[in-house]
Write a structure and sequence with these properties.
alpha/beta, FAD/NAD(P)-binding domain, 7-stranded mixed sheet, 5-stranded parallel sheet, globular, binds flavin-adenine dinucleotide
């Protein structure tokens, strides 16, 4: 077997004319990138579909400038942007192929086969791809929720992600939202000498109490039970009218009020879901649909970069093992699958007897 550190894929391979891929991965966040370089290192042709125009997932789009301090091996921390770029470069070097600005629509079963294995058709907004295995790594958070009252201004100074460090110096920054991302944004702006007002719709902060305390101690003002009711331009700045009639001037507005969930996408995939709407997987990260794996935030309890990496790597290796030694030849998996089916039946019977 190939040394997993040395890809067997050749630079000479014409990826554009492949009739089918070994693996298609949905999402170029930490889980998808780690999975992709693992399958490509093992010589599997690997295509990653990413909805946005850049790789990296949440670390790139939500907290590019945050210093991440919990990645082993980076004692001085590393920014979301740098971590994303490094992982992406590793995947590109392993000859993973990427399609950006494209989005998963559905995954269909086909009657076509590759080496005795039925192929799946991944349908995206821009095309269709036949493949042997699909890894769903699209995270739970998709596009940020927007505030129509601010969108009407069509301002380039309204951000739905945290703008780059250096942009705040001496400026008036309004942060909207009461969760951890909003408080993180406020702290970062305050650290760059901005004057910060945080507007929270609820009567209490949802984010960490100690971060809220840091905001206050650094001079930030937190307004509870407050929303923006109107917004207009005044002398080059944005003037925001608040619920209590007060007006705030803002050079920048950072909106962190949650996300449109990817759970709608999961429902279209025809896979078993957990009670909370996340994707149910077996110990091999395979979903209820054979050949479809789910990794990272899409199902996990612990939502961390390193966990997403680990799951991506494990699922990639299971997918690789199935491609090189198919499921029906793998006795351990067969036994585990039987045990899991028995477990499902017991759960179903218990649920039925409770509802009778
Ligand atoms: C504010 C904040 C701070 C955090 N800080 C840390 C930290 O310090 N340390 C840490 O370990 N973790 C941190 N996390 C958690 C960490 O970012 C996530 O657990 C991790 O990004 C999950 O990776 P993922 O690949 O599963 O999903 P994501 O990072 O969400 O990536 C999913 C990718 O899939 C794409 N996608 C979505 N839908 C589709 C579709 N239909 N078709 C194609 N592509 C699609 C998305 O555009 C995205 O690029 C933080 C999270 C937040 C919100």
């Amino acid at each position: 077997m190939a040394d997993f550190k040395v890809t067997e894929l050749s630079n000479e391979l014409d990826f554009e004319s492949l009739s089918s891929w070994d693996v298609v991965i949905i999402g170029a966040g930490p889980a998808g990138l780690a999975a992709s370089l693992t399958t490509a290192h093992r010589g599997l042709t690997t295509l990653v579909i990413e909805a946005k125009d850049k790789p990296g997932g949440q670390p790139q789009f939500l907290y590019a400038d945050k210093k991440i301090v919990d990645i082993p091996g980076f004692p001085d921390g590393i920014s979301g942007e740098e971590l994303s770029e490094r992982t992406y470069r590793q995947a590109v070097d392993a000859l993973v192929q990427f399609r950006f600005n494209d989005e998963l629509v559905s995954i269909e079963d086909t009657d076509q086969e590759e080496k005795g294995e039925p192929l799946k058709r991944v349908v995206t907004k821009e095309g269709e791809y036949l493949c042997r295995k699909v890894l769903i790594a699209c995270g739970l958070l998709h596009f940020p929720r927007r505030l129509p009252v601010l969108d009407a201004l069509e301002s380039k100074s309204v951000f739905y992600k945290i703008p780059k460090i250096g942009d705040y110096d001496g400026r008036q920054v309004v942060v909207i939202g009461g969760g951890d991302s909003a408080l993180d944004a406020a702290v970062m702006a305050l650290e760059r000498n901005a004057q910060v007002d945080v507007l929270v719709r609820a009567k209490a902060i949802a984010g960490k109490a100690d971060t809220a305390e840091r905001v206050k101690q650094s001079g930030g003002h937190i307004h509870l039970a407050t929303e923006v009711t109107a917004a207009e331009y005044q002398a080059g700045a944005m003037a925001l009218t608040l619920t209590d009639g007060q007006q705030l001037l803002a050079d920048y507005v950072v909106v962190q009020v949650g996300f449109l969930s990817a759970k709608e996408t999961f429902q279209r995939l025809d896979v078993r879901l957990n009670d909370d709407g996340s994707i149910a997987v077996d110990p091999y990260f395979e979903t209820s649909r054979r050949g479809l794996f789910a990794i990272g935030d899409v199902h996990g309890d612990i939502k961390l970069i390193t966990v997403a990496w680990a799951e991506g790597i494990q699922a990639a290796i299971y997918a690789f093992k199935e491609i090189t030694s198919p499921y029906w030849l793998n006795e351990k998996r067969l036994r585990d699958q039987k045990i899991s089916m028995i477990g499902d039946k017991i759960t179903q019977a218990a649920t039925q007897s409770r509802t009778r």
